[in-house]
Automatic annotation (TrEMBL):
InterPro entries: DHH_sf (IPR038763), Oligoribo/pAp-PDE_c-di-AMP_PDE (IPR051319)
Annotated region (Disordered), positions in chain: 262-304
Name the record gives this protein: Uncharacterized protein
Taxonomic source organism: Candidatus Woesebacteria bacterium RBG_13_34_9
Alphabetical list of PANTHER family matching this protein: BIFUNCTIONAL OLIGORIBONUCLEASE AND PAP PHOSPHATASE NRNA
Organism superkingdom: Bacteria
C-alpha cells in the first residue's frame, strides 16, 4: 500500500506531469486529464518538450500545457532595454510585501511595463509522472539533477526502460489506451474527476482505439466508457475531419461567407419528367394549352 498511486499523490506537494517527445493524442489526453484532476489540491505542472499542435486543441485545458519547465526561481528580465542604463537595483519589505526598485541612470528612461518578462528557472518537485514513452530518449529532461530527489512514476500500457538505471515506480498495465489506465488510477485512488476530465479521457480512448474498433478493446474498456459518459463525458469524433459547411454561417472567425443569389424557379422546372416521354410530348408539357390552367367543371348524368 506504501507505493500505491494514491499514497504517492497524497505525499507530494509539488507534481510535474511530463509528456514524451512528439506525444500522441492519447498521451496528451491522459496527461491533461490527470493534471485537471490534481490541480485543485496540488501544485501541479504539465510540460511537453514538443510544441502542442492544432490537432490537440479540441482537448479541454490544452492551454495549460507548457514547454518551459520551472517553478523554483523567479527570473525578471527586461527585453529590448539597455542594461547599462540601470544605475542600481534595491529592494524593501513594506507591510510584509516585497518591493523591488529598479533605478535608471540620470537622463535614462526606466524600463516600460511591456518590457518586463517574467519566467522561472530550475524546478522543485516531489514527484515526476511520465506519460507513455518506451525509453529514456522520449524524456530528455528526466536525467536532470533537479529530479535527483523526486519520485519518478510511469503511467502507460507498456513498461518503459530507463537506461540510466534510475529507479521508478510503474503503474503501467495492459489496456486499450493510456487514457483508460488514467481513468482506472483516478477511480481506484478516489480522486475527483468531472465531466471535462471525462470528455478528455473519452477522446483519448476513442482516438487510440479508432472509435472502439481496435482489437485491444475489451469489457473493461466499455465499462470505462460507460462510467465516463454517466458523469457527463462527451464522445466527440476525433477521426472525421470537420468541413466548413458543418459550421453555422459566421461561426468561423476570419472567414468571408458568400451567399449565392436566389434563383427564381419556374413551376415547370420542378415538375418530374417521365423518362419515356418523347420530345414532342416534352415540348407540350413545357408549353401547355391555356385551357389546361383554367378551373375544370365536371358534369354527370346520373348519381351512383
Amino acid at each position: 500500500m506504501e507505493n500505491s498511486f494514491k499514497n504517492i499523490i497524497d505525499q507530494s506537494r509539488s507534481i510535474l506531469i511530463l509528456l514524451p517527445l512528439k506525444p500522441y493524442f492519447d498521451q496528451v489526453a491522459a496527461g491533461l486529464s490527470l493534471y485537471l484532476a490534481l490541480k485543485e489540491q496540488k501544485n501541479v505542472q504539465i510540460v511537453s518538450p514538443s510544441p502542442i499542435t492544432v490537432e490537440f486543441n479540441r482537448l479541454i485545458g490544452v492551454n495549460k500545457i507548457s514547454q518551459d519547465m520551472g517553478n523554483k526561481n523567479l527570473v525578471i528580465k527586461f527585453t529590448d532595454y539597455k542594461a547599462n542604463d540601470i544605475e542600481r537595483v534595491s529592494y524593501d519589505i513594506e507591510e510584509g510585501q516585497f518591493k523591488l526598485t529598479v533605478i535608471p541612470k540620470q537622463q535614462a528612461n526606466p524600463p516600460l511595463k511591456e518590457q518586463i518578462d517574467l519566467s522561472y528557472s530550475g524546478i522543485l518537485v516531489d514527484s515526476v509522472i511520465i506519460i507513455g514513452g518506451a525509453n529514456e530518449s522520449h524524456f530528455p529532461s528526466i536525467s536532470s539533477q533537479d529530479f535527483i530527489d523526486a519520485n519518478v512514476v510511469h503511467i502507460g500500457i507498456k513498461d518503459i526502460s530507463l537506461t540510466s538505471g534510475r529507479s521508478y515506480l510503474s503503474f503501467s498495465r495492459p489496456a486499450s489506451s493510456i487514457s483508460e489506465v488514467v481513468f482506472g488510477l483516478l477511480k481506484e485512488s478516489g480522486i475527483y474527476y468531472d465531466s471535462d476530465i471525462a470528455t478528455n479521457l473519452l477522446m483519448g480512448i476513442d482516438e487510440s482505439t479508432q472509435s472502439l474498433n481496435s482489437p485491444s478493446v475489451n469489457a473493461d474498456t466499455f465499462s470505462a466508457v460507460s462510467e465516463l459518459m454517466k458523469i457527463g463525458g462527451k464522445r466527440l469524433n476525433t477521426q472525421a475531419p470537420l468541413e466548413r459547411s458543418s459550421y453555422p454561417v459566421g461561426s468561423i472567425p476570419g472567414v468571408q461567407w458568400r451567399t449565392q443569389p436566389t434563383k427564381q424557379i419556374n413551376q415547370a422546372e420542378i415538375q418530374p419528367k417521365n423518362s419515356f416521354t418523347n420530345p414532342e410530348e416534352e415540348d407540350e408539357s413545357q408549353n401547355p394549352p391555356k385551357d389546361w390552367l383554367s378551373p375544370k367543371i365536371y358534369k354527370g348524368t346520373s348519381i351512383s
